Records
---
Amino acid sequence: MEIIDRVIIGSSPIAIIEAMYLKSKDQSVINIEERSEIGGAWTTINRSGFPEVELGCHIWSYNKETYQLISELFNLELIKLSPQPTILFRNKMIPYDWKSNIISIQKVLKNITNLRETLASPELRFSLFPSSYLYPSKGTLELKNSLNELVVKHDLNIQLNSAVDKVVLKNDRVELFNIEGNLILTTKELVLTSLSKISLIVLEDGSEIRLNTRKVDYIHVHLILENVSGRPFSYIRTNGDEVIHRLSDMTFQVKSQLKENQKLFCAGIFPKPFQEKSSEELKAYVSKFLLENKLISNQTRIVNYASNVYPSYYNDSSFIDKVKNKTNGKVRFLRSTDFIYSFYNQKERYKELLLSNTK
Ligand SMILES: Cc1cc2nc3c(=O)[nH]c(=O)nc-3n(C[C@H](O)[C@H](O)[C@H](O)COP(=O)(O)OP(=O)(O)OC[C@H]3O[C@@H](n4cnc5c(N)ncnc54)[C@H](O)[C@@H]3O)c2cc1C
């Protein structure tokens, strides 16, 4: 079997750009994707009665330099969210940035013994004046279309409907097996992301590292509403609600496909209430929540309503460190739990890619 230089698990935006980067370095690269389409979490749903729209409420962390890099890599039109993202706290909208202030203070306190290094971390952000959060003008659909164009333009080799389950390290190669135990590919280096789901890694000495993932079901409901005359919002992180953890107004992404008086909202739902409540109860809860928080009015009518569940598997960071230390460079991780920071971490390499593309 031919030994591929690099195999990447998945086809999310970071996995596609990594493939482009490696290919620009004259490496042979294959992306293995178990789903039937590319994009990973950055995908869309296409339900009857709805325009094609992103499957859940998304926000991109604030980092001006990375916004620029991403807009160039994917050729995206990024717009300023209007109004800017907020946190809903006791019926009041407060700037979303306050969340990063709180997280940053917590990080500093936790790592007080290593203060210099902690303060240098890019994820540590204090903001007195709210930042300008950007997002693609047509949402994830724009990103997804761009990914498909890049795959064709750069002739990337993506193997869909194919999953790696077990990884076996040999002296000179890494062997990849599917769930049936068949050897599907052999590579010099395997590239995983924070959300790659691998059951078992067998090291050269025969010892095993077993999977340690945390399954997270991302549950969202989409609503098309008529006659909305509530407080305007773009993205809201709710605080303290037991059912809804975030909300998005996605109208701007699909405006031309909605009627003049319609809006498209999305709500992120915690797994427990989703299991416990019937669809009608959940719909009534979401509607009441929107009304109580003055995001809709008594005149607002729900025209369409649909829910979706996207299962994902997060690798524990101790698992990532263990794999990194024990595989002698044959298995590499792209840390990818935050969209923007996954690109920030690779920015020098991907800027090189942009330069090589313009030559
Ligand atoms: C629903 C959802 C919403 C999110 N929202 C945000 C957000 O708003 N902002 C933000 O910054 N981040 C968000 N994230 C975090 C997200 O993890 C990152 O933005 C980014 O998508 C991670 O890229 P990834 O490749 O690690 O994972 P994913 O995007 O989940 O892609 C992984 C892909 O790999 C495939 N795969 C996994 N294991 C295997 C295998 N063994 N064999 C073959 N294929 C495999 C999966 O099918 C999937 O398509 C969200 C994540 C999810 C799941």
Note: The chain has eleven helices and 20 strands.
---
Amino acid sequence: MREFVYFSQSARTSGNFDANKLMEAGRMDIAIHSFIQGVFLSHGFRKDAKFHFIFYGQPDPPKHIEIQVTDELEISKKDVGNLIRKILYKYKKGKKEEVLPGCFIEKKSFLNVIEELAEEGKEIFVLDKHGEDIRKAEIPEDCVFVLGDHEGLPKKELKRLKEIATKVSVGNKIYFASQTVAVVNNELDYRGI
Ligand SMILES: C[S@@+](CC[C@H](N)C(=O)[O-])C[C@H]1O[C@@H](n2cnc3c(N)ncnc32)[C@H](O)[C@@H]1O
């Protein structure tokens, strides 16, 4: 299973935002573009991919949303904004809950999510322009790629991440978050991972 963890310091943590004004919801547009590149294919979706959102925006940070698209989930590439709104609205204090098929939400910090994935035996990679060339990196089947929004990843947490993760680069330019997800998926597809 390949997994992506998308971090945003500003994305809204309640469903009360306008799905037609995603840029005003803490750049929810970037989160959605990244998700689309993460799990959708031209004629379907990736069964081998899981996508995590970590939102630190107002009014109730932090929120961890996990989505693995299945046949049971009603989802359209054109309406991911409303799916995220629904998931946020269904959040209940205290526990990680499956609020829609394959969609979970809980209150959990960025580091705790990553540490938990590492404890489950998954190898953690941080997407970073200055990391090791992804084409040369050894990547196991159970892999997690961490990326940030337009503001990047939080500095303090990055220090701790360095101890448990490997930085990988997808090229010598700074790409959109969503572009890096597409490149990672393509690299893993080529390798048959
Ligand atoms: C638009 S970039 C963030 C730019 C932000 N100003 C910064 O310096 O981190 C969004 C995310 O894409 C990933 N990224 C961008 N370019 C990359 C590259 N060449 N290799 C690997 N990851 C990259 C990083 O994870 C980054 O947090």
Note: The chain has one domain: 2-191.
